[in-house]
Specification:
heterotrimer, A mainly beta (91), B alpha/beta (241), C mainly beta (193), B: Elongation Factor Tu (Ef-tu), domain 3, Rossmann fold, 2 domains, five-stranded parallel sheet, C: 193 residues, 11 strands, globular, binds flavin-adenine dinucleotide, binds zinc ion
Chain lengths: 91, 241, 193
């Protein structure tokens, strides 16, 4: 009900990746849908960020932030396709 | 794309003014802020004296280079963070900020395709950044805004959106109370409203929808039913129902 | 200078450490609310012998039920006191179940899971609740029926519960796998592992 868009993952992942994750494409393990992470649906706040496939609800990513520690699972993604930084500037 | 600065930055409240009876514009000076694209957001972190922390995301109303950011915050009566930002935060007070964030719900000056913006309530904030950028770069891409509000008194940035110099036209829609003489009666945005007040699929627009989760759900579903391809609709849900 | 207080922490002795009172009933879900009609609903307990005990909605409602008034505590730091429920005690559901295993994994419609020690869901400590505050349990709060284990943080009270699978070890459920506490006692502030 109360879900957010994948865009909101940009904050909690900011210091995990060198690339901008919400404009990165990934494929869902479960239904093979290919989408940007910004297009995923995010549930679970404020316990954690549970990003689900926009097409089949499969859990793609879970991020839990707590004081001094962050845990990340990418269990539902088959792959991520990361554009080079210079390219990323032009998306 | 403007990538986030490392870690948490400190923002100090430089200016503030009311937007409506329940909302306030707050502008922070943020040393180390790398500038931001129109549509990006920032995470705001508050810490209480016993170490408890609360983090919330807010869209940025300002865009471009520079060490200042403007936010537009609506007070939720039983909220934890928004009443503090709207009612309590005083000039010179500091908050922690992480950003700028996100690269998907953004509009860049190089984009040339027609743009339809659809806002519900405080969801207009990222579109203020987009319309400002659109005007400041004299973009030739058609851009227009459909702004859905409860009542005429709930408009954020009404003067700015109504200025003759605005390069993006705003169409207003009211769900509870309409101004005197308004042609449509108050009510939720329907697929019919969207059909008559937004760019049709034939013009191949990029449509951005922002506001409370329930609003975004309803509007994006209606847009799909009108024939817009899902990949041409970008959404930013603010939460709530 | 304005000082952020968060939600005011209360000294109320009914509140576990780090909790504050709420009057509303915030909704927290790790996924979309599944819609399950009571016609299709069933509840099961699966044991190590391969045996599955099943109840459909009518059989479930025919079991003796209890009115329950308890305090509930969410790990995100809100607590709600004196909430009223109606449900079937797990003691009733386990009456005919033979198992030598010490742990259960609760499974929900929609795929959510959470782990519990068997001894913490027996002896009047847990229910399958199907009414809240005198009315039917709304889907957003876990209806048609949810697990209710009020002495543990509320993520253990799995919404849309569908069954319990006995397990020999305390394997982690959904949130527990990502660092939330295996046990989750609010009075000991067992939030994370
Ligand atoms: C990417 C992003 C950008 C955002 N930008 C803005 C912005 O520019 N301006 C702005 O005012 N807000 C914005 N929000 C919403 C903001 O992050 C907070 O959710 C909001 O300020 C409420 O926080 P709170 O602590 O006051 O309320 P909480 O204590 O978190 O919640 C109080 C109650 O209100 C409900 N609720 C939470 N959020 C909303 C909501 N948005 N609408 C209705 N009910 C809600 C909750 O379910 C809860 O019952 C944005 C959210 C996201 C994800
Ligand atoms: Zn999928």
């Amino acid at each position: 009900m109360d879900h957010l868009d994948g865009n909101v993952l940009a904050g909690p992942t900011a210091d995990l990746f060198l690339f901008e994750p919400t404009t990165t494409q990934g494929q869902c393990q479960s239904c093979a849908d290919i989408a940007m992470l910004g297009q995923a649906m995010v549930y679970g706040q404020p316990m954690g960020f549970v990003a689900r496939c926009r097409n089949c609800d499969n859990v793609l990513i879970v991020i839990i932030e707590r004081a001094g520690q962050k845990s990340l699972s990418m269990r539902g993604l088959r792959w991520l396709r990361v554009a080079d930084r210079a390219m990323n500037d032009r998306i | 794309m403007t990538t986030p600065a490392a870690g948490w930055l400190t923002g100090s409240l430089a200016r503030a003014h009311p937007l409506t009876a329940s909302a306030r514009s707050i502008t922070f000076t943020v040393p180390g802020w790398p500038g931001n694209d129109a549509g990006q957001h920032v995470d705001v972190r508050l810490t209480s004296s016993d170490g408890y922390q609360a983090v919330r995301s807010y869209s940025i109303a300002s865009a471009g280079p520079g060490g200042e950011i403007e936010l537009g915050i609506d007070r939720l009566p039983d909220g934890e963070v928004s009443p503090f930002l709207v009612d309590d935060l005083a000039l010179g007070d500091t908050v922690e900020l992480r950003g700028p964030l996100g690269g998907w719900f953004v509009w860049r000056p190089e984009q040339t395709q027609p743009v339809q913006l659809i806002a519900g309530g405080s969801g207009v904030v990222p579109f203020i950044a987009m319309t400002r950028t659109h005007a400041s770069v004299c973009s030739s891409a058609p851009m227009q805004l459909l702004y859905s509000l409860r009542t005429p008194n709930d408009a954020f940035f009404r003067d700015e959106l109504s200025q003759p110099s605005a390069t993006a036209r705003t169409t207003w829609h009211y769900t509870r109370t309409v101004p005197p003489g308004w042609s449509r009666s108050a009510g939720r945005l329907t697929a019919e409203d969207l059909k008559s007040k937004t760019l049709p699929p034939e013009q191949a627009p990029l449509t951005y929808v922002c506001g409370p989760t329930g609003f975004v759900e309803t509007v994006s579903r209606a847009l799909t039913s009108l024939g817009h391809a899902p990949d041409t609709i970008r959404t930013e849900r603010f939460g709530g129902t | 200078m304005a000082v952020f207080g968060g939600r005011r922490r209360d000294d109320n002795p009914a509140l576990p450490p780090g909790q504050h009172l709420t009057e509303s009933f915030p909704v927290l879900s790790a996924g979309p609310s599944p819609s399950i009609s009571t016609e299709d609903w069933e509840f099961f307990i699966h044991t190590e012998t391969g045996q599955t005990h099943r109840w459909n909605w009518d059989q479930f409602l025919a079991l003796p039920s209890e009115d329950i008034t308890v305090d509930i505590h969410c790990v995100t730091s809100w607590s709600k006191l004196g909430t009223g429920w109606k449900g079937v005690s797990l003691d009733t559901l386990f009456a005919e179940v033979e198992t030598g295993l010490d742990f259960v994994m609760a499974h929900s419609y929609g795929g959510y899971t959470t782990n519990l020690p068997l001894e913490e869901v027996l002896d009047g400590q847990a229910w399958i609740a199907y009414e809240y505050d005198g009315g039917e349990l709304e889907p957003e709060h876990g209806g048609p029926a949810r697990l209710l284990v009020p002495h543990l943080y509320f993520w253990k009270s799995a919404k849309w519960v569908r069954g319990l699978v006995m397990q020999s070890e305390d394997n982690p459920g959904f949130w527990e796998e990502y660092g939330y506490n295996l046990h989750g006692d609010p009075w000991r502030e067992e939030r994370y592992s």
